[in-house]
Amino acid sequence: MMAGMAAMGIYKLLKSGDLDSLKIKDLRLMEIKLNKKIDDLNDEIRGAEETIQRLFGKARETTTKSEEITIANRIKTLNQKKDMKQSAVIQLEKELRGVSNLLILKENERDLKESGAWKKLEKMKPEKMEKWLTTKTLEQRTRQDTISTIVSMTSEAMESVDYDEDIDDILDTIREVKRGDLEVEEASKKVMKEEEKKKELEED
Question: What are phi and psi of 178, to 5 degrees?
Answer without folding.
Answer: -65, -35
